[in-house]
# Entry
Amino acid sequence: MTPGKLKEKLGRFKIPESEYSLSGKQPRHCLCLEQSEVGWAVFRCTDAGDAKNLGTFFHEYDANDYLFYLLMKKHYDIEKRWW
Amino acid sequence: MSVACGILRNDAPTEFNIPYYGATKTLEGDALSTHASVFFERQTGRRIMRLQELEERILALKPIPDRRCYCIRETSTDNELCLRKTDASWTVYFCERGVRHVKGVFDSEHDACEYYYCCCKKASDEKKWH
# Structure
């Protein structure tokens, strides 16, 4: 999934912007995406400023897919269908 | 709480002492991992996904994925999405003509299983197995 497609789909499914960041670490509880030295990292930030790595990907499209999956499964039933 | 944190962090202890019939018992390897998982689940209410559950969830997908398209435990062959534990991490890769194309690297079995399921679910719903 391209970055543009990711933004469009997050907006279409009304995922609150407070729940994610596509521009790296944030000082709040949210899922984040950031380019790293070896690829793209998806991680969870906490209100305390900590970050927990959820996966490192070598292609941006794969990282976008995973971030989208993690956000969507909080709001929709993943077992029914892919969005 | 340190055990619960241990499974989520790179600086996790490699062994841990627990009370055991009036003495202490040292847990390490898989025993430590299992103990930490159960403790974490009880404390947080969040479930830890392991290979066994991942396999069951894949088999529950509709349409059922072609068995030749995914590979969790056995030696990978051609055109398979694979999940493997390496020294300190878990890797998801696509095997094509003997060449491994790494998709993602994960700190924990749970995160690797979650991503693997994400790939399988997407492919299944799009009816587009590799």
Observations:
- The mean pLDDT of chain B is 69.
- Chain B has two domains: 2-44, 51-125.
